[in-house]
Model the fold of this input.
Amino acid sequence: MLSLERTFGPQGSGAKIFQLMPGNATDTSRIETLSGSLSNVEPIRKRLLLDLSDLGIPLDNLEGMALGPRFLDGSRSLILVSDDNFSDRQVTQFLALRLAEGERPETSTRDQRQ
Done:
């Protein structure tokens, strides 16, 4: 599974793509409440695949992510999209990325727990 995590602040919009690894994560669907101690809850693990700020392009408020068609070499595309919210200060943006199977991107040097 992949996750698109977005930020917005004084420097503008940002986004990161993470690989989610449910593995040993606790199934919380039958837990009535998560208030109180969470010591018995194992969170999902995630690994940073790409910080889109590393691309060096202006980003708008990315809101969607979907697998796209395969490239000629057989690798999958990942499509990201933002919309302009009918605002002159925003843009509709499509980004096409290549997913390389079996490769570990340089930006994925550590696991992150949340």
